[in-house]
């Protein structure tokens, strides 16, 4: 599995994305964004709409989109 360079690069990319999501969570950036969104939005439907917009903005890679939305949705 790890002998193929594409598999190794993909694995490293996913690990780096996970590290980035963890760094954003640990630094408090996610909580600040969640507080900002909670202050601006009055209903759950608007909050879900923001998550849908974030899904489109982070649609560069399916792993990035999933990790980012998971971290943000958990804090909302």
Report on the structure:
The chain is 83% helix and 0% strand. It contains four helices and no strands. The chain has helices at 5-27, 29-40, 44-57, 62-75. Helix 1 runs parallel beside helix 4 (62-75) and helix 3 runs antiparallel to helix 4 (62-75). It is mainly α. It starts with a helix and ends with a helix. The mean pLDDT is 76. The chain is elongated, with a radius of gyration of 15 Å. It has one domain.
How are the SSEs placed, and which strands pair?
Blueprint: H1 5-27, H2 29-40, H3 44-57, H4 62-75
How helical, in percent, are the residues? Answer: over 70%
Largest sheet report = none
* Rounded mean pLDDT score: 76
What is the CA-atom radius of gyration, in angstroms?
15 Å
Features:
mainly alpha; elongated; 76 residues
Summarize the structure.
It is built from four helices and no strands. By secondary structure, it is mostly helical.
């Amino acid at each position: 599995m790890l002998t193929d360079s594409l598999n190794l690069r993909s694995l490293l990319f996913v690990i780096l994305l996970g590290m980035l999501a963890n760094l954003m969570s640990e630094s408090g950036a996610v909580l600040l964004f969640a507080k900002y969104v909670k202050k601006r939005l009055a209903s759950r439907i608007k909050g879900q709409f923001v998550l849908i917009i974030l899904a489109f903005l982070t649609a560069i890679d399916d792993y990035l989109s999933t990790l980012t939305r998971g971290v943000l949705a958990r804090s909302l």
